């Protein structure tokens, strides 16, 4: 996917494209000294990372407040913040437990003047109310739902970018959790899945 392909598919403005281009430059430079994304994914960054992240806005177009758990390289969180930058009531919480990743995220937020807050801490310990909690390549569903539980219990919808093992992960997760879920095919990769989760609670073993 080229930048112009992305711009056409998303209807992105020139300002959004400029910010996304700057983010990719920052990511490429930072990735040379720390492992934020697989180096082999950078040649296809517009599809693998940018469009993959942006598609979440089509699923939850009215969501304004997002939390990105294990935000790492900023996908999907930084992309969402760039695309919602013009919305005065939008905000993205970027949460990661590793300090060096948070420093990268903070530099991007500051440099691009994004409506976002970086938190260096554990996802499950934050007292934040959001419309959507999201994560990408963070953990298998059974563990991921544990991280997301506080947000879901405060009314958030979970939207998680997963790979081709999503169905199997959901089966395993149901041994620990009860929840309502939906599954849709990723637009960036037909092998990928987007898992939607609501009404999470632990299974009560007798």
Please describe what this structure looks like.
By secondary structure, the protein is an alpha/beta fold. Helices cover 40% and strands 22% of the residues. The chain is built from 8 helices and 7 strands, in the order ααααβαβαββαβαββ. It has helices at residues 3-10, 14-31, 45-54, 56-59, 77-83, 99-112, 141-153, 166-173; strands at residues 65-69, 91-96, 116-120, 132-136, 157-162, 177-185, 193-202. The protein has a 7-stranded mixed sheet, with helices on both faces. α2 packs antiparallel against α5 (77-83) and α7 (141-153) crosses α8.
Widest sheet: strand ordering: 3-2-1-4-5-7-6
Largest sheet: 7 strands, mixed
Low-confidence stretches: none
| Topology pattern, helix = H, strand = E | HHHHEHEHEEHEHEE
Alpha-beta content class: alpha/beta
Round the mean pLDDT to the nearest integer and report it. Answer: 95
Number of strands: 7
Helix content: 25-40%
Q: List the total number of helices.
A: 8
Strand content: 15-25%
Query: First CA to last CA: what distance?
Result: 51 Å
* Computed Rg: 16 Å
Which key terms come to mind for this protein?
22% strand; alpha/beta; 206 residues; 7-stranded mixed β-sheet
Summarize the structure.
The protein is α/β, with parallel strands linked by helices and 206 residues long.
Task: Itemize the secondary structure elements and their pairings.
Blueprint: H1 3-10, H2 14-31, H3 45-54, H4 56-59, E1 65-69, H5 77-83, E2 91-96, H6 99-112, E3 116-120, E4 132-136, H7 141-153, E5 157-162, H8 166-173, E6 177-185, E7 193-202
Parallel strand pairs: 1-2, 1-4, 2-3, 4-5
Antiparallel strand pairs: 5-7, 6-7
Helix pairs in contact: 2-5, 7-8
């Amino acid at each position: 996917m080229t930048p112009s392909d992305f711009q056409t598919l998303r209807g992105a403005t020139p300002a959004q494209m400029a910010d996304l281009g700057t983010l990719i430059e920052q990511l490429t430079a930072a990735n040379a000294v720390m492992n934020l994304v697989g180096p082999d994914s950078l040649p296809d960054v517009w599809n693998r990372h940018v469009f993959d992240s942006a598609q979440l806005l089509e699923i939850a177009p009215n969501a304004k407040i997002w939390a990105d758990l294990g935000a790492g390289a900023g996908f999907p969180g930084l992309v969402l913040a760039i695309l919602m930058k013009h919305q005065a009531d939008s905000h993205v919480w970027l949460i990661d437990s590793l300090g060096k990743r948070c420093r990268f995220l903070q530099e991007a937020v500051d440099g691009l003047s994004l409506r976002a807050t970086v938190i260096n801490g554990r996802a499950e310990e934050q007292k934040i109310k959001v419309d959507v909690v999201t994560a990408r390549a963070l953990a298998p569903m059974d563990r991921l739902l544990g991280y997301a539980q506080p947000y879901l219990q405060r009314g958030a919808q979970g939207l998680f970018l997963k790979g081709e093992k999503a169905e199997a992960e959901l089966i395993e997760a149901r041994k620990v959790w009860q929840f309502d879920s939906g599954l849709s095919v990723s637009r960036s990769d037909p092998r990928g899945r987007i898992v939607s989760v609501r009404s999470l609670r632990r299974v009560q073993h007798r």
